[in-house]
Amino acid sequence: METLLPKFDSVFSIDCVIFGFDEGELKILLIERNEEPFKDWWALPGYIVEQEESIDHAAERILYELTGLRDIYMDQFYTFGDVNRHPQGRVITVAYYAMIRLNGSKELKPISNYASKAVWISVNDLPKLAFDHEKIFSRGFEKIRNKISYQPIAFELLPEKFTLTQLQQLYEVILNKKLDKRNFRKKMLNYGILKELDEKQKGVSYRAAKLYKFDKRKYTRLFQKELTFGK
Amino acid sequence: METLLPKFDSVFSIDCVIFGFDEGELKILLIERNEEPFKDWWALPGYIVEQEESIDHAAERILYELTGLRDIYMDQFYTFGDVNRHPQGRVITVAYYAMIRLNGSKELKPISNYASKAVWISVNDLPKLAFDHEKIFSRGFEKIRNKISYQPIAFELLPEKFTLTQLQQLYEVILNKKLDKRNFRKKMLNYGILKELDEKQKGVSYRAAKLYKFDKRKYTRLFQKELTFGK
């Protein structure tokens, strides 16, 4: 069939904002690029979509090649299409995000050679990023900040057993504000969504705190009943 | 600067899902295409992003050219990037949506000649659509269905003065279910977000219904206080 499509020098790319919570800090995964013109720059894990792959598949493949992570459930959150966002040509990038449970934020091993390393870095301590990746990160952060008010995302980031301090820290870093400890605990306990365990924190020398679990059924229900008006 | 970008035959496009509420029905704007291979097919208003324009600008331009509508506030909601979604080559499309207040759903006038007409059609009565536009529409509909539970969108679709029947119809078509009239009215009136006016519906021969307005301040606040826990 004759094609009516114009011939443009344009490519699609994928960029990933992968959130993890560790040591009381919200972190994202960054790579150090290994190619000009951004050699040695920090960037979000991302690269070009191949001609013959879907964007969802590209997102999985690229994250794996750059960080060794796989089987991570990612969702699109925004597509960035300003004309001059890439110095080498027209590149429209589809941004994906994921929230994962970190078990110690050790350095990850890139498989592809277009990154020299992949590291978890606190969102409060980000280096200068390549391209428009600061903008992409900010939008991703805004996404989870909004989401925390209508979906149960603390689940996805906290370990299965956690302390109230960890829970509060998570809310504080995502909402970007200090919360009153007494108030926070009272509210959280009143919701009836936390199950107190017969266990305490391990590896803490002084005053180990109690551990809690979410009552998943109640937690999810709490987030469903919000504004059900009309229903 | 030497470019490292590959040369792909790929283009970006924009597709728009424009919602309006009229005569008790949720409608979207469709165009009839005027070009092969989809001549005479119904499709969402959409076309190709030019090499030198941002995707946001393209969305405005394309909607205007196809429907004559302008200054419509649109938001991206999803990017569709399956390999074979377009019969003529690799086309990744960024989908935008908008909700607008309809004043009589008359036919609109395309300015560009790649559409022969632009018409408001009820979401319950859609014809077969070109490309993967049914999928794009469904995802857009899902978007506003989710949104109605955490953001005040009835505002954007209803006329400034409306009857309780209109309000209920709007919720029913978006949530896609019948609601109990007595219950719905009781809930809505209890929220204290509706202001009863000293006016009745015009142009109705029999039992004209009372008109209401939203108390915007209260309505917005209701949607903010939902799940503010941790805040």
UniProtKB/TrEMBL annotation, chains A, B:
InterPro entries: NUDIX_hydrolase-like_dom_sf (IPR015797), NUDIX_hydrolase_dom (IPR000086), WH-like_DNA-bd_sf (IPR036388), WH_DNA-bd_sf (IPR036390), WHD_NrtR (IPR054105). Pfam families: NUDIX, WHD_NrtR. It comes from the Bacteria. Residues 11-143 form the Nudix hydrolase domain. This is 8-oxo-dGTP diphosphatase. It comes from Daejeonella rubra.
